[in-house]
Amino acid sequence: MIQDLINLFYPNICQICDTELFKNQNVICTNCVNELPITNFHLDNENSVKKVFYGRVPIENATSLLIFRKKGSVQKLIHSLKYRGHQEIGAYLGKWLGEELAATESYSNIDLVIPVPLHKKKLRARGFNQVEEFGKHISAALNIPYVDDVLLKKSFSSTQTLKTRLARWGNIEESFILINSDKIKNKHILLVDDLITTGATLEACSDVLLQAENTKISIATMAFTG
Ligand SMILES: [Zn+2]
Fold first, then answer.
1. Is 181 exposed, middle or buried (0-12, 13-18, 19+ CB in 10 A)?
2. 8 Å CB contact between 223 and 76
3. Distance (Å) from CA 44 to ligand 1 centroid
4. H-run or E-run covering 209
5. Phi, psi of 190 (to 5 degrees)
6. What is the distance in A from the centroid of ligand 1 to the CA of 149?
7. Is 74 a residue whose pLDDT tops 70?
8. Radius of gyration of the chain from its Cα atoms, rounded to whole angstroms
9. CA–CA separation, 22 vs 112, rounded Å?
10. How do the domains of the chain map onto residue ranges?
11. Using an 8 Å Cβ cutoff, are 95 and 214 in contact?
12. pLDDT computed for residue 171 by the predictor
């Protein structure tokens, strides 16, 4: 009854086409789900996402659920998640990819999920890490821990002027630090992020995680811009 009233004033709408969802639908309507550009990269161990890292950093397996196109439906989803706080989108995509990975041999020996972190100032401004629900739902589907107190984004505050100067040239390096490294010793880590474009962020994170003793890295993102 209360839920019906809430739905009357705040109808549950599809996050892509804005039509009202039926009671058995969740986040994205059936038509839009069927139109989503899925990659099925998890079924191919030499896919385009994995190739991004060739010659850069050793990665066991890498996949993205969807293909990102400018002005496409996937861009709309990620925009709603990041800037309009629709965290149910991250949960939905994480549950979906998590179930796919749980049924895939090459992802069966992963021990834990680690999200690409936000800097704490950005976290405070946005209120949430857009990758958190995605990562937590993947970890739930794989029945492994979600660990967000090992990899941190480093502060640039002391080099703000230099950062601005470098950013203008477009070659700013992101930087991450490792704490509690015992937690990931001898572990196969699934590193998760929203988008992969050049792979620079995921490469920087992997470099840091690989400093811990005997770790292996695989990667999963919501979407791939290639
Ligand atoms: Zn729709």
1. middle
2. no
3. 29
4. helix 200-209
5. -100, 110
6. 36
7. yes
8. 18
9. 35
10. 1-35, 37-224
11. no
12. 47
Tokens for 86? 């629709």
Q: Ligand 1 centroid to 194 CA: how many Å?
A: 21
Q: Which CATH architecture has domain 37-224?
A: 3-Layer(aba) Sandwich (3.40)
pTM for the model stands at 0.89
pLDDT of 206 > 80? The answer is yes
Mean pLDDT of 63-90: 95
Three-state SS at 115: strand
Is 138 in a helix, a strand, or coil?
helix
The answer, yes or no, to whether residue 169 has pLDDT greater than 60, is: no
Angle at 107 between CA 103 and CA 110, to 5 degrees: 125
- Residue carrying the six token digits 């899925």: 38
Q: Tell me which residues have their CB within 5 A of the ion that is ligand 1.
A: 14, 16-17, 29, 32
Alpha carbons 57 and 26: distance in angstroms, whole number: 38
28: β partners: 26
Confidence of residue 48 (pLDDT cuts 50, 70, 90): very high
